[in-house]
């Protein structure tokens, strides 16, 4: 069972292990949405990943505490999220890009098909 972000983030100064960040389907959906759109507010992310606002907001806080995401305020209550400039954020974006490229390649059933694609 995936621990909730509240259970993971008892101390916001603590660096989490990679499995604590990537163990959540919600977290991964958020990262993929921001990779695709670059800047989104909490409501837009919530709609895109088909989650609820409170759960999305807690995952966004976790990602921001870990310096993977950053936000800017838009008006009084709205936050616009994006990937931060940290090395962790760059690594996550690179992982997502690599994963997307690899899943776009066709799966070959034979060695002959594999050679033909190269």
Short structural summary:
This protein has one domain (14-117): Winged helix-like DNA-binding domain superfamily/Winged helix DNA-binding domain (Arc Repressor Mutant, subunit A), CATH 1.10.10.10. The chain is 58% helix and 12% strand.
Order of helices and strands: HHHEHHEEHH
Mean pLDDT: 85
Q: Tell me the name of the CATH homologous superfamily.
A: Winged helix-like DNA-binding domain superfamily/Winged helix DNA-binding domain
The strands making up the biggest β-sheet line up spatially as 1-3-2
CATH architectural grouping = Orthogonal Bundle
- Total number of domains: 1
Distance between the termini: 41 Å
Number of strands: 3
Q: Helical proportion?
A: 55-70%
Task: Indicate the low-confidence ranges by residue numbers.
Answer: 6-11
Largest sheet: 3 strands, antiparallel
The rough form would be described as: globular
CATH topology: Arc Repressor Mutant, subunit A
Helix/strand class: mainly alpha
Strand proportion, as a percent range, falls in 5-15%
Q: What is the CATH C-level name? A: Mainly Alpha
Question: What is the count of DSSP helices, taking H or I runs of 4+ residues?
Answer: 7
What is this structure's SSE topology?
Elements (H helix, E strand, L loop, with lengths): L4 H4 L9 H5 L2 H13 L2 E2 H8 L3 H13 L3 E6 L3 E6 L3 H18 L6 H7 L1
Antiparallel strand pairs: 1-3, 2-3
Helix pairs in contact: 3-4, 4-5
Characterization of the model:
Residues 6-11 have low confidence and may be disordered. The chain has helices at residues 5-8, 18-22, 25-37, 42-49, 53-65, 87-104, 111-117; strands at residues 40-41, 69-74, 78-83. It starts with a helix and ends with a helix. It is built from seven helices and three strands. The protein has a single domain (14-117), classed as Orthogonal Bundle (Arc Repressor Mutant, subunit A), CATH 1.10.10. A hairpin with a 3-residue loop joins strand 2 (69-74) and strand 3 (78-83). By secondary structure, the chain is mainly α. It has a three-stranded antiparallel sheet.
């Amino acid at each position: 069972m995936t621990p909730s972000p509240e259970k993971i983030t008892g101390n916001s100064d603590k660096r989490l292990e990679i499995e604590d960040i990537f163990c959540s389907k919600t977290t991964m959906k958020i990262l993929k949405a921001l990779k695709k759109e670059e800047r989104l507010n909490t409501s837009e992310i919530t709609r895109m990943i088909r989650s609820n606002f409170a759960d999305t907001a807690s995952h966004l806080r976790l990602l921001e505490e870990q310096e993977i995401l950053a936000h800017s305020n838009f008006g009084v209550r709205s936050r616009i999220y994006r990937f931060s400039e940290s090395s962790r954020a760059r690594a996550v974006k690179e992982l997502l890009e690599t994963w997307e490229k690899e899943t776009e390649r066709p799966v070959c059933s034979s060695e002959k098909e594999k050679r033909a694609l190269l």
